[in-house]
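$ run holo --ligand "heme C" --emit tokens
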Amino acid sequence: VDVSTDVFRAGSGDGLDNPVAIPSLRGVRFTGPYGHDGRIASLAEFSQGVVTTEFGGEPLDTRELSALVRYLQDLDFLPNEKLDEHNRLTGAAAEAAHRGEGIFNRSYPGFGGGSCATCHDPSSFFRDGKAHRMGTGDPPSPHAIEDGEETPTLLNTAETAPYFHDNRFATLGDVITWFDATYALHLSSTERDDLTAYVQAVGAVDRPKDDRPLARKLNQQFAYIALASDQDPRVRRAAIEEVLVSLAGEPAALHDRGDELRASLQALRVEVSKTAIEPRAARAMRDDLSRFAADWAGALRP
Ligand code: HEC
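-- output --
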């Protein structure tokens, strides 16, 4: 989002096309200073600044501001079984990631004798709380305090692609390739892969096992059909596509009914590109799908 435009707030346009990525708020109490250039030390000051500057609103009173900050402080990093409490890799991480840990901690002339870990310090949530000129930002504007970019945490990156303050890289592998080339690290292709595996392991997020009963799982997916009567044609189409994705792989005995349902959904998809369907029709379709979900789960029961 480019927050320095008149669209965002009248009078704040700087005439530059300089959008910044929206950072994750997970673990935000550990990732100060704030702002992509790390200009503001406190979460309260930053939040107040967003309300008054970006939104051009009245300042929050002390009670509201402390409630908002308290809420932000509750947002935590997601668990990752590949890291122990000292942010070292555990046995759950792959062999390649363990080799990559050494490459991450090795010193390089390109980093002035430092390592990846100098900036992304594992004992400090893989960050150093400092801003660095990485040559990735816009040339400093005469009106701004432009000290480069703040080192981002490497935790939970599985959920935060694309990467860098301007979202320039789609994958962590692309980031590693950039560091290798820009800082002349002279990594072999195996080392790049291992380092990528390490950074992926650090950024991984444990997925809770989905042990909902099959019928409930299907039904909760099929519930999206209600959005076929939404006002926005893109929402209507996306909803039907979501249902079609879940409606696959039914047991052999139910193939014919599955095919029928898929055919009606495909016809519906064409229809909703033009017009929203009646909520009543969406409910009827939902009932058909629910019966199908129940039979599907029943057919698999021994
Ligand atoms: C001099 C400090 C410094 C060093 C050394 C460093 N980084 Fe970074 N790293 C940064 C900064 C600053 C950014 C943000 C750049 C931007 O947004 O333009 C960053 C971004 C990243 C990102 C993207 C994270 C995200 O969420 O966008 C990854 C991944 C990463 N670095 C991994 C590494 C690896 C691996 C190494 C070693 C090869 C390394 N870094 C060395 C400071 C450093």
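-- notes --
Residues 2 and 19 are 4 Å apart (CA to CA).
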